[in-house]
Design a protein that fits this description.
The chain is of the alpha/beta class. The protein contains 21 helices and 14 strands.
């Protein structure tokens, strides 16, 4: 017999989306027993995930160890390539009335769950409009999007659907129950096939994608092939679906990126088997030609091959390449007007051309590389004026973040406290290779994230790598020992002023940032001599 209310929930996979939903449930539905199902619970208990600057305080468990009770609702938020492994352990969470909701991309996860556990335990689900990202244990969740779920057809809501809907309502999760869930899954498939593949091939975040007429047309062409295929399989998608998606795309954070592009930049596996590969397989069965998806899929497989060949040694990731090129521009090893050729840089870094192309795009976004109409790229001089503007921009953002922080009465600002602890532990090791500038970036990132304002956080993160390189520039030029001697005391003083709600913390923060600016300007001038 089914229980009326959802009393226990397990979220399998705490990536950006899983953690975002876990945070909503933890904040809004405290009666529910919430479990984060992860590979290594002990690690998460010691180093919890932070969502928008706040720790995710939930109970962690693993599929291997199971939990002390059957779970009423299991939400699957893992990557598609992890599903076979997850399926082997889900039985440890199951009870007579367990319901599975899969948030995975693609069209096949529900069928796999039904084959493993029976249709009576599976509801269909997908999410659109999510704007989330994860780096290490830090999740930025601008919005979780809308969760569409239900039986395959929902002209009348079943008891299971009503139970889950009631739970989502109490948890503050935006949801809809479409009349036709199969149609909704294909609609999401159209978005993923078009946006994920195109953004990865062109190496573009949402903002750059919107600005590129070529990339947008390539995405539309890939999506029109999805419409052709969907109609063959009896799902009436149309051009209207593309128009609705493009309206949603306009609302996404410009610096945000598709899950496939994010995974490519992080060196992770890509979900080709449920997108491009699945398109090719279904088109072959239907005897339909899909040349645009064939081109995108082949290109992505080639990019994976190149990346994997390179990564057999020390990975030359786009971020690492971009960091080194920034340093070379600052040190005048790369001078204004120098040609930035992909093939030469690929040889220098033993990297794939796609990784180099991504690194050059990052630097282009920062204004350090100029791309001419003929495609030729050349370096741009990093001037004292740019240094002043960057540090002033930093001061404006961090000053506003500090104002919002201080409105949180009686807070100990746990993000900042955690980084300060790392700094204190690093100081006795000053003779070793302590990465002072990384710790500095971590401290100021924690400060901005403690504001809880997504717009401030995104604006700061868009320049974080350049700030990191400037700090690297300062310490690499002989300031490392000075950092070691005063580093902890400076940051501890700023933290203590914040705790005491002392207005002097604004002056201390400004001095902190301006001191770094003065050092950078003096070193930049010396490098020009």
């Amino acid at each position: 017999m089914e229980r009326d209310e959802i009393q226990s929930v397990g979220i399998v996979g705490l990536g950006a989306m899983g953690a975002g939903y876990a945070k909503l449930i933890a904040e809004n539905n405290r009666k529910v027993r919430l479990y984060g199902i992860v590979r290594n619970p002990r690690k998460y208990k010691k180093e919890p995930i932070f969502v928008n600057g706040e720790p995710l305080n939930i109970e962690y468990a693993s599929l291997k160890e199971g939990v002390k009770e059957p779970i009423d609702l299991v939400i699957l938020a893992v990557k598609s390539y992890h599903l076979p492994e997850v399926l082997q352990g889900l039985a440890s969470l199951m009870g007579e009335n367990t319901i599975f909701l899969s948030l995975l991309n693609g069209l096949s996860s529900e069928e796999q769950l039904e084959n493993a556990f029976g249709k009576e335990h599976v509801l269909y689900a997908t999410v659109t409009g999510a704007d989330t990202n994860k780096k290490e244990n830090q999740v930025t969740c601008n919005r979780c999007g809308c969760l569409y779920f239900g039986e395959k057809k929902n002209e009348v809501w079943s008891c299971r659907v009503k139970r889950v809907a009631e739970f989502l309502e109490k948890s503050g999760i935006d949801y809809e129950v479409p009349a036709d869930m199969e149609y909704k899954l294909w609609e999401k498939f159209l978005i993923n096939v078009g946006c994920n593949q195109t953004s990865t091939v062109y190496q573009m975040n949402y903002g750059k994608l919107r600005e590129s007429s070529e990339a947008m047309e390539k995405m539309r062409s890939a999506q029109r092939e999805v419409i052709l295929l969907a109609r063959y399989y009896g799902v009436p998608l149309s051009e209207k679906n593309i128009e609705v998606w493009e309206a949603d795309l306009q609302r996404l954070t410009p610096q945000g990126r598709s899950s496939m592009l994010h995974d490519y930049w992080q060196g992770r596996p890509l979900e080709t088997e449920i997108l491009g590969d699945a398109m090719m397989e279904m088109a072959a069965k239907a005897n339909l030609s899909i040349p645009v998806n064939k081109e995108l899929n082949e290109k992505i497989h080639q990019m994976i091959l190149e990346r994997n060949l390179v990564n057999r040694g020390s990975p030359a990731t786009p971020d690492k390449i971009a960091n080194q090129l920034r340093m070379d521009i600052l040190h005048q090893k790369i001078k204004k007007g120098d040609k930035m050729a992909e093939n030469q840089l690929a040889k220098r870094f033993s990297a794939s051309r796609s990784s180099v192309r991504t690194a050059l795009q990052i630097l282009s976004n920062e204004g350090l590389i100029l791309t001419h109409e003929n495609g030729r790229r050349e370096a741009v001089e990093f001037t004292e004026k740019q240094v002043i503007e960057l540090y002033h921009f930093r001061w404006l953002l961090e000053q506003e973040a500090l104002k919002r922080m201080l409105n949180q009465k009686n807070s100990i600002f746990p993000l900042i406290a955690e980084v300060l602890g790392k700094i204190e532990r690093a100081c006795p090791q000053a003779g070793s290779d302590v990465d002072w500038y990384d710790l500095d970036v971590q401290f100021h990132r924690a400060l901005v994230r403690s504001s809880g304002n997504m717009f401030l956080i995104n604006a700061w993160e868009s320049n974080a790598q350049l700030v990191y390189t400037l700090m690297n520039f300062n310490t690499s030029a002989g300031y490392a020992q000075e950092y070691a001697d005063t580093f902890f005391d400076k940051h501890k003083r700023l933290y203590e002023l914040c705790l005491s709600d002392d207005g002097q913390c604004f002056q201390e923060l400004e001095k902190h940032i301006m001191d770094a600016e003065i050092i950078t300007k003096s070193l930049l001038g010396a490098s020009r001599i």
